[in-house]
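@channel sequence for tomorrow's demo:
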Amino acid sequence: MSRYIARRLLQAVPTIIGIMLITFLMTRLSPSDPVTLMVGTNPNVTAADRVVLRHSLGLDDPLPLQFVKWSGNVLRLNFGTSFYYHRPVLGLIKQRIPNSLQLSVAGLFISLMIGVPLGIFAALRRGRAEDHLIRVLSTVLHATPSFFLGLLFILILGVHFKLFPVGSMNTVGDDCTFCWDRVWHMIGPVLLIASGGIAVFPRLLRA
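structure tokens (generated this afternoon):
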């Protein structure tokens, strides 16, 4: 077993390097210029200042050397400073991890609570009307893009009927972590995250 795990880990190394290389090339070869994004149209920034800033960021180095430096920073969890927020990217990621975990764990729980019973029920009623209905609904839900479902939720239940909020994790001024206000804000995103599992689990369990 240990040899198998070691072999699989070694096989994952080229995949990780390939993903890092593709990510690096997508950012470096994009039409946008990091220096222009940082200084914008500030008239006080001269051409010489741009050259100095480009050199300090290492953007005038050859691409292979840039990739080596960039990979080293990624391995040290140094993702630089956000152009938009002007704050360390790692700090922004840490700040958003709790909300992301709440949404993903709640979405997984809901998908299991709904998808698993539906799959068992469809298997027990194989070939009957209930089975066909569950399979059709599962296929339709699986084929519908999640962003489209999110837009429908926002437009119909959020904007038109005003039943649910359309943004944020809490009402402005209320920063509770576990309360009804947060649950109310999480209903839409959690159902959207759970929709994938609700579509897949019944088909897997039925099979």
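heads up for whoever presents: The chain is about 70% helix and 0% strand.
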